[in-house]
Design brief:
Blueprint: H1 5-32, E1 36-37, E2 50-51, H2 54-73, H3 77-103, H4 107-128, H5 138-159, H6 165-183, H7 187-207, H8 216-233, H9 241-251, H10 253-268, H11 281-287, H12 292-312, H13 318-340
Antiparallel strand pairs: 1-2
Helix pairs in contact: 1-2, 1-7, 2-3, 2-7, 2-8, 3-4, 3-8, 4-5, 5-8, 5-10, 6-7, 6-8, 6-12, 7-8, 9-12, 9-13, 10-13, 11-12, 12-13
């Protein structure tokens, strides 16, 4: 199902407009029902209650635009199944996240649901042979898919710790993935990616500092599963398998870095990695002297830098691809060391 460039732009603008319009409506509903993220624990950085449920606007907008575009462009049972195979797992975890926003679930039930969705997605990708870079070993491919989906899902959720951080980062990564998908003729991945980008930018209008609404776990888990599934389906036009795998990692390098630093820090301090805390990248940048808004912009810039590395890979020689990946991972390792050496609290 080939999509023209102007149609990608229309998809992005439509999802931007829908989510940008829905978010204040959802915000008013959350306020009327007193559904707030309260500053009632040590890891919360806001001083006043902020309405939740922004994720509901992201979910509704993304799903509505995706299916309407499918109906308008080329509606077949095959395309319907393709879209649903990506949207359904994300919707399931969005509902789990919404339940968590309302009832405050413990980490273990969430992990069970994430793993269940990961296993289901892995089975589907293996049965339909739609994994972007298969290793040739079924069990290894299944394990990689499961770890990737659960890991990215939690990374996006963890990264949603400061106004606009997660929404802006997912938007940048999605735009880069959309570009790569378009350049590589993977039109479904490209189309879904620009819808996600438009939705997150529309939400960002209300979530940028000072945030007037939060996406909550419903939005973070929904976006996490979507971007994880789209990247695992994406086949980079790299000349070696390891640079192909690396392209996917580079697109989400900063959320992965955030989770790696936070989890490592907590393990070193002998506390649970699932325990909330002000030990994420954004918090460390603020303690280093940056304003909250500037700290988020720095993380967006780093996301864009790694995304540009990923975008460059298909258009250069094999040697250049390897140099880009090695330099990018070296930079990631340096950032990991520098952030881990900053104050944890």
């Amino acid at each position: 199902m080939k999509v023209a460039l102007w149609q990608y732009l229309l998809l992005a603008l439509t999802s931007f407009a829908v989510v940008g319009t829905l978010t204040p409506i959802v915000r008013r509903f959350a306020i009327s029902r007193e559904i707030y993220d309260l500053p009632n624990s040590s890891h919360k950085t806001h001083a006043e209650p902020i309405p939740y449920l922004g994720g509901v606007a992201i979910v509704i907008g993304t799903i509505a635009v995706s299916y309407l575009a499918l109906i308008a462009k080329e509606f077949t049972l095959k395309n319907l199944g393709l879209a649903t195979s990506v949207i359904a797992p994300a919707l399931i975890l969005a509902l789990v996240g919404l339940w968590d926003d309302m009832k405050n679930l413990r980490p273990f039930p969430r992990l069970i649901m994430q793993s269940t969705v990961g296993v289901g997605t892995a089975i589907f990708l293996l049965v339909t042979n739609t994994m972007g870079v298969p290793t040739g070993h079924v069990w290894l491919d299944g394990l990689i898919t499961l770890i990737w989906i659960v890991g990215i899902c939690n990374s996006i959720n963890f990264f949603d710790n400061m106004d606009g951080g997660a929404a802006g980062t997912v938007a940048i990564s999605s735009l880069a993935l959309g570009y790569l998908g378009y350049q590589g003729g993977q039109y479904f991945v490209a189309a879904m990616s620009v819808v996600v980008a438009g939705s997150t930018i529309g939400f960002l209008l209300w979530n940028k500092s000072p945030a007037r609404i939060y996406m909550g776990d419903a939005g973070a888990l929904f976006l996490g599963v979507l971007i994880a599934t789209l990247t695992i389906r994406f086949h980079p036009h790299a000349q070696t398998k390891w640079t192909s795998f690396s392209t996917k990692i580079l697109l989400l390098a900063i959320p992965i870095l955030d989770t790696s630093v936070a989890v490592t820090s907590r393990l070193l301090r002998k506390i649970s990695p699932f325990q909330g805390g002000q030990d994420h990248l954004s918090h460390r940048l603020v303690r280093a002297g940056l304003e909250r808004r500037i700290a988020v912009i720095v993380l967006w810039a780093l996301t864009a830098l790694f995304a540009l590395c990923a975008m460059a890979i298909p258009s250069v020689s094999k040697l250049s691809q390897e140099v880009i990946v090695i330099c990018a991972f070296a930079g990631w390792g340096l950032l990991f060391t520098l952030f881990l050496r900053t104050s944890d609290t």
